Amino acid sequence: MPRWKELLALLFLLSFCAACAKVQAYHPAPIAPVATARRLESRRLSDPGLERFLRANLHRSLPSWPLRQWDLQTLTLAALYFNPQIAIAREQLAVARGAIVTAAEKPNPTFKLTPGIPSPYLLNLRFRFPIETHGRRKIRIEQAQRLSSAARIAVAQTEWSVASGLRKALLAYEMSKRLLMLNQGTESNEKRRVTLLAALVKEGETARPALEAAQLALSNTAFSIRLEEGQVAAARAALAGAIGIPVAGLDGVELAWPNLGDLPSIASLSPRRIQREAVLDRLDVRRALEQYAAADAALRLQLARQYPNFNIGPGYSYSDPYSNFTIPFNIILPIRNRNQGPIAQAEAFRKEAAANFLAVQARAIAQSQQALAEYRAALAAFAESSRPIETQQRRIRMGERMLAAGESGRLQVNALQLEGAVYSAQQLQTLGSAQAALGALEDAVERPLGPDVSNFPARARMAAAPGRKESGR
Question: What is the pTM assigned to this prediction?
Fold first, then answer.
């Protein structure tokens, strides 16, 4: 066999082996809407996977399973396990990590075969190996790593958003439930008042308008109870949605927030501490910083592209009866442009990223200061609301003692109890406002500030730490 034929056969064999080496196959992943809907509808808080997730992430011992009572901490972990928004953010992180692999890839060599006429007496073979210059691959990898880090922080932001939404939903449910219980107690007192007044009217000791006014108040309270029952049901459905389960998944589950009235003092939340945490440790600030670093890497990459890459490789030419080996070298000459346009764009993008970082920091400062001021006012109002309740409770106890001594009537004690219910409703409203203001302050610094912070599971920046156990959903 002539020498050029042997070489050609060898080159074809090498090309075939390279083409067959570790080729990934396509694996279909169809979506069945009916099946996914059934899986969503079957989600329950007794899920065995949720139990493993709780035991791995809850910073306290877990009692027997399934839990009899779910509080803010355990419900937050359930939301982190079930909520579909977190799965979306994690897949976006996987895309960003895939970009690192793409950035690290080296360009493949090329093979060129040019047969002549009449064949096989003319033949040209060329191999070209691309050589990247000025550290472009290293810069690409750095840029992709920065974007991956920003995507990792975005996962933490999503987790915090889910935890914050769960907190708001649980607060709305707890407040509506407590207001319903308060109205039901008021209804019992008003029924008792109607009974007492009816007896006095029958005996002719009081006028009928007083009885009719009491009956009207009872009717209004009953109407409020019906409305509040609907709000409790709506808040329960919203809570299930915040967790990521159907409403039926909460059937037979006791939901509680036992330390709802435990609020951090103003002394523990100094403006300097709040502003420092908002400016330096907020997730969107950290993400904007990573995006700026990625924009800086993109600029350095465009600057490196001022200097062209080149190709080099062996070549072989056969023209019967002559054959030659060559080492061709080719390069793009930067004569007509030196990549000025992409460099200008990259510089503008970096300036935009810097301006965005400053804007995010300024927004963090403004939000934290406003949220702290609102929390101070709400906490002061809540503290003030306890004073009339204490006074009214003393009046009720005094009235009960006078009733026992025969110095007062039941109607007077009943009036005091109804008056006390008004003050209790005011206190409940101020408590809800204070808790909502605390939640807004936590959102401003993206850090839990309430009691038992060390045991709080949804300190969402856990997702940004290496080695965190992720949920199975």
Answer: 0.84
